[in-house]
Design brief:
heterodimer; A: alpha/beta; 2 domains; 9-stranded mixed β-sheet; 12 strands; globular; B: 605 residues; mainly alpha; 4 domains; two-stranded antiparallel sheet
């Protein structure tokens, strides 16, 4: 049901809906996207996930030396890692995405991150979302600047945000549609057709940006409501039911597969700041990874054919200390891993530079180093997958150029 | 059907508008007041652009309306006063226009520009009497900083139960401080008769933004607004610049507390600490963050004629200006592992960790409101700052061609003087004020006049605003109801229009967060914008309509409007279109108040 049907249902559709300006928008929306476009999903793990528990260097004896209580056992053991390449293994809770590794659509880029040394969540998230490390007054998010470079298909759902508030990464001139991934959709006053029609009478026909925002807002809402109504939205694999994360995969996947104008989507998950009792193959982090793994697996499944045109990047503001701390946890570190999933990904392999985790290899003697700037990864995906030119990439990531040792290749299928 | 093409391309259906007047005339005598309002609304519609249309017979018959039309361009007209109130206050309350008309616009403005001349009701005074606002940053740290909370927390050790207990105390304390500050802030924004002071406090807080989401600013943000912003909001720019530069909240937020001469070599006091690389990394050299924003955002503006070299030189001047040891500048920022170890020692043997001997004071504190102060903390307790001469770069600096000889702390006052008096600053501040009060793209003619006043008065903000309020640009009908409200202004103006009482501030804060403008939590140092481009988008508009629907029906969580004795909130609209009038008339009565709050006109100010 679109906005028009919605108002017809209330018996209130009038000639005013055929105002010339409205028609122009509607037509623009119809003609803009002939070929199905490639899509990007960014999943941000807030709190800094422990990368060494996601991709486990089980063949490195140092790993078990510095992590007495929180190491993931080698493959073949109870709650042990799932072997990836003979040296590294995946956290057992991420078993739901193991098929994606096996079918070649999941990879990890090791030792990535921000060149800014901050270990403050606040500053590091800010930089990673603005895409301008060290420049605090950048007011727009890189995902919004990227959207501004994509062909404008005039859809109010071209950018989706799962949550309640527009995050830093999506702030900027291009509008995004925010919705909660809830197991049961909650109605708000504007979903009442009589109330909506009353507001419509005030807003329609003004021919200004207020009218445009109103109509787009109603349309985005009805689109999302309709697609997600009555769906069995629980996550697979018994993930935490009450959590909004439990539903994100199926909901987002369904919306993106059925609404071809969605270009980018953003999801953020919290709870990864595991200073205390991080756990190993089970425990706090394992539970979170279980939710995340199921969500990503649901997302890949629900995307259907669209999966082949989608890249899903999973990232976090920084990594955690290589050594465990005195509380069976890990503290704020530096480098981390970026996960890349999707049919367009040249998966089944580990990318980036790996120097091991001996003391000498570590940043400030304690953290994984940053060998690949996170913007290199983002630029590579935005350039190769979303077809942005180098000039456009300059707009998305000013002051940055992925060249020389900073560049990374091989993320996407040739 | 005759249609009249308006300037903005809108089609107006003339017979339809005539119908509105017929309906109004047919209204029963019992609805006299409402009818009068609609007449006024209709007139305003006419004045807002459809003059041709309204010059018809229906309107001409009304003597009152003729008078209104004649006065439309004057400041004392209903439309003029409504415009003024929309900008000087956080929104028109029913009855406000008449009050200002009775008082006279000039006298009203004069009062608002000197807020001390306006008496504050005791309720407004009382709401600010909370530790989050009244205690200085040092006392706030000693009482509510992590070390104090750790000492309060049962156990205080490293077990999981201890951590949980501490976590709860920390969350509760930060939450309570934030809510106290927010309750006071919102109550004053809604109810203070010194409206312009509150409006300017909002302006300057965003100009000198800090975020309560960043570490220690949790406990300092309310006090920052109370001591560094509000008292100077209509005062002298240089005073506010100095107050923010020295306040702990700013020093922490923009990292200047870490800004240290490159040559500085720390003396590691704690023998247990010497092997820890973090012990040295707290003060690891120059940090330019504050210096850059001080030029780019607080004073000169991004095109203000400074270079990266000037930023570097300014950063050198600012080295050593930080937080007092023992009140934020001590061990608060060490990594958690180390902090835990130190705190363990802190309880056993204070001498190595707390060189200023705060342990007994911190331990004595148990309850909110019983604040213990510490006179032995070095530096300035009022601002929570401390100048560490050891970390200051003693060399000569050159900033924008001016040589600053090494003179320790005095250099800082010297450069703040230079920055505050620079012509770029006068222009930058004037531009931002004109954008805030007049139009998203303010007329350069106005900015120039204001900048001249700024320079002539050495940055007297009330004088600059007086120039603004007297300008033809401000009164130009094109600049009326042309600003899109920020979410914050939308909420506050809605609560003013409905004479609402906040009974629980938490849901209101949650709404502001959802709307993208959580109070005191703008991440970036440029603060929240106040332009349409920043805030008008489909999500935000739909959010507002949900808010309006709930508030208009007195169903908004945390808020009560049943004691509203102000009458028809339609008076809160400065202008209104026939479309809006018609939609309100067609709606069920219980929805009408919501429709006013959700109308396109109420989105603007």
């Amino acid at each position: 049901m679109n906005r028009r049907d919605f108002l017809k249902t209330a018996g209130l559709a009038t000639a005013s809906l055929l105002m010339p300006n409205v028609q122009v928008w509607a037509q623009a929306g119809k003609t803009a996207s002939a070929a199905p476009s490639n899509k990007l999903v960014v999943v941000f793990l807030r709190g800094a996930i422990d990368g060494l528990s996601v991709v486990v260097p089980y063949s490195d004896p140092n790993y078990y030396k510095v992590r007495n209580n929180i190491a993931i056992p080698p493959p073949g053991n109870e709650l042990g890692a799932l072997d990836l390449d003979g040296h590294f293994g995946l956290h057992p809770s991420l078993a739901p995405i193991m098929p994606l590794w096996k079918n070649g659509s999941l990879s990890f880029i090791l030792n990535t991150g921000s060149p800014d040394p901050t270990r403050s969540h606040f500053d590091a998230q800010d930089y990673m979302e603005s895409g301008c490390p060290g420049r605090k007054s950048t007011s727009t998010g890189w995902l919004n600047r990227l959207l501004a470079q994509l062909p404008d298909n005039h859809s109010p759902v071209r950018a989706l945000n799962i949550g309640t508030t527009t995050p830093r990464i999506l702030q900027g001139p291009v509008a995004s549609a925010t919705f909660k991934a809830e197991l049961k959709r909650r109605r708000s006053p504007i979903d009442n057709a009589v109330i909506a029609a009353s507001y419509e009478r005030m807003y329609e026909g003004r021919g200004d940006s207020l009218e445009r925002a109103f109509l787009d807002g109603i349309e985005a809402r009805t689109t999302i409501n309709e697609k997600l109504n009555g769906e069995q939205m629980q996550a697979n694999g018994g993930a935490i039911q009450a959590s909004r994360f439990g539903a994100f995969g199926k909901q987002l996947g369904k919306l993106m597969s059925e609404e071809p104008k969605v270009q980018v989507a953003f999801v953020d998950l919290g709870g990864f700041d595991t200073h205390v009792n991080q756990g190993n193959g089970k425990g706090q982090l394992a539970n979170h990874l279980n939710v995340l793994g199921n969500g990503l697996s649901d997302l890949a499944g629900a995307l259907g054919d669209t999966y082949s045109r989608t890249v899903i990047l999973v990232m976090s503001e920084f990594g955690r200390t290589v050594k465990e701390n005195g509380n069976n946890g890990t503290d704020h570190g530096h480098g981390n891993f970026i996960w890349a999933l999707g049919g367009a990904v040249q998966g089944g392999k580990l990318l980036g530079h790996w120097d091991g985790i001996s003391d000498r290899a570590l940043y400030e003697g304690r953290d994984l180093p940053v060998r690949t700037d996170f913007r290199s990864v983002l630029s590579s995906v935005a350039g190769d997958h979303l077809q942005l030119s180098s000039n456009q990439l300059q707009t998305v990531f000013p002051d940055f150029s992925a060249s020389g040792g900073n560049a990374i290749s091989g993320i996407l299928k040739a | 059907m005759r249609t009249i093409k308006k300037k903005n391309g809108r089609q107006l259906d003339a017979p339809h508008v005539a119908n509105i007047y017929r309906r109004m005339k047919a209204a029963s005598p019992a609805n006299a007041k409402r009818r009068a309002i609609y007449v006024a609304l209709a007139i305003l519609v006419g004045l807002s652009g459809a003059t041709t249309l309204l010059s018809g017979q229906a309107l001409a018959r009304s003597k009152a309306s003729r008078i209104e039309r004649q006065q439309a361009s004057s400041k004392d007209s209903r439309e003029g006063v409504a415009h003024l109130l929309n900008r000087v206050t956080f929104g028109i309350r029913p009855g406000d226009v008449e009050k200002v008309q009775a008082l006279g616009v000039e006298r009203y403005l004069k009062e608002q520009l000197s807020p001390d001349s306006i008496a504050l009701p005791s309720s407004i005074q009382q709401v600010a009497q909370v530790p989050a606002l009244t205690e200085n940053p040092v006392n706030l740290f000693l009482n509510y900083g992590k070390p104090a909370l750790k000492a309060l927390s049962k156990g205080g050790g490293n077990t999981e139960a201890d951590k949980k207990a501490l976590g709860k105390i920390v969350r509760d304390t930060y939450g309570k401080l934030y809510q106290e500050a927010a309750q006071a802030h919102l109550t004053r924004a809604i109810d203070s008769p010194r409206q312009l002071q509150e409006v300017m406090t909002d302006f300057w807080f965003n100009h000198f933004n800090v975020s309560s989401d960043k570490g220690l600013d949790h406990i300092w943000v309310g006090q920052y607004e109370e001591s560094a912003i509000r008292p100077h909001a209509l005062g002298r720019f240089r005073d506010m610049l100095g107050a923010t530069a020295h306040h702990a909240a700013m020093l922490f937020y923009l990292d200047n507390w870490q800004n240290t001469a490159a040559s500085f070599r720390p003396v590691v006091n704690n023998p247990n600490n010497s092997n820890n690389p973090k012990a040295k990394s707290r003060f690891k050299g120059i940090n330019e963050n504050y210096a850059r924003e001080l030029m780019e955002l607080h004073t000169l503006g991004v095109d203000g004629g400074y270079t990266q070299k000037d930023v570097q030189e300014l950063a050198r001047v600012l080295t050593g200006l930080g937080l007092p040891p023992g009140a934020g500048g001590g061990f608060a920022m060490r990594n958690p592992q180390e902090r835990r170890r130190m705190l363990g020692q802190f309880q056993g043997n204070q001498s190595q960790i707390m060189p200023f001997g705060q342990r007994s004071r911190q331990r004595g504190i148990r309850n909110f409101g019983e604040v213990v102060s510490a006179s032995s903390i070095p530096g300035d307790a009022k601002s929570g700052s401390y100048f560490d001469a050891r970390r200051h770069d003693p060399g000569t600096k050159v900033i924008m061609g001016q040589t600053i000889a090494g003179a320790g702390e005095r250099e800082i006052e010297q450069v703040l003087d230079i920055l505050a008096r620079h012509p770029s600053t006068a222009h930058h501040i004037s531009y931002k004020l004109a954008q805030y009060f007049v139009a998203d793209t303010p007329p350069e003619s106005l900015v120039k006049k204001m900048a001249a006043t700024f320079t002539r008065t050495d940055g007297q903000i009330a004088a600059v605003l007086n120039t603004l309020f007297e300008s033809e640009e401000f009164w130009n009908p094109q600049n009326r109801n042309n600003k899109f409200k920020s979410p914050y202004r939308y909420v506050v103006s809605s609560l003013r229009a409905t004479d609402a009482t906040i009974v629980d501030v938490v849901p209101v804060l949650a709404y502001l967060k959802q709307a993208g403008q959580p109070l005191y939590k703008c991440l970036t140092p440029n603060g929240y914008k106040n332009t349409q481009e920043a805030w008008l988008n489909p999500d935000s508009l739909i959010n507002r309509l949900n808010f309006a629907t709930a508030l208009g029906a007195n169903r908004l969580p945390g808020v009560r409007t049943e004691n509203n004795k102000q009458g028809d909130i339609t008076d809160s609209l400065a202008i209104v279109s026939e479309k809006t009038v018609s939609a309100i008339e067609q709606a069920q009565p219980q929805l009408r108040q919501s429709l006013v709050l959700g109308s396109p006109e109420f989105m603007m100010y």
